[in-house]
Amino acid sequence: MVGFYKFMQLAQTPETGVWNQDYVYYVTERQYKHAGCKVEWPWFLNMPGLKYEKFDKSQVPQGLGLQYGFCCDGVVISTTLYMVWLLNENLKTGRFKIQRRSISDLKEAIGLHHRGKADIVVNATGLLARDLVTPEEAAKVHSVRGTTLLVESNAGKQYTVKDHDPEFPGEYLYVMSRQEGGTVIGGCFEKDAEHRKTIDPAQRQRYLDRVKKYVPHLLNSKGELDIVREQVGFRPGRVGGPRIELDQKWTHDNGGVALIHNYGHEGSGFLSSWGSSARVLKVVNDFLGFKAKL
Asked: Which CATH class is domain 21-72+143-235?
């Protein structure tokens, strides 16, 4: 919720790289049956101030095997522009200097503060947390493979089609139009598949088949997708969800220098960033015993 309201606010300022874009969500008949014939609305529809409209079976596009859906307010983040804006906002404070270092132990981070010894270390290392935390905790961290296609055409909206394909249970269709042009098409959710660094032809064809069925206006005159590039990424998953907490044992063993973990967000790093930061700040405040000015 924190992130949604923040991004809706940032969307009022174009140079942030965040823009408003309608979001359309459909659930297929076989997903509905797989869920025990229960209508399952996402939790965020209950957020105060969110404008949405629900669709029953008579209101969704016909002949596509859809059961229900909704449309609501949404945002799209042009991540390249957003990261530059975010970096500049931090630099303008004049409170820190950017350093690029490789470390093999979190203890090494204590001495990297530009004004001397650090009082607080935040471990936001994503998948690399596997190499920096205890073996017991490292066993909980795993990769989540995601694949996308960037195509030339523009869908104009964001779409998600939630489906249950028993042969490919980790795949579903999402479409996100980029404000700077083109559309991102995904996606999949595959645990521990880091050996698969490219999109295979069969998966590419499945994406094309879904687009043909649900978002055909993305196709060119030949009924194909004009693919600009294919992307494969490995997102930092964790058994039990994100870890955002003070590591009391590490802090005790290192002279009271606080170690705060903040990793394991899977594919929602951008979406959950502001909420996660708020939780980290609360941990910092609790550790310091007063309201820190960060």
From this structure: alpha beta
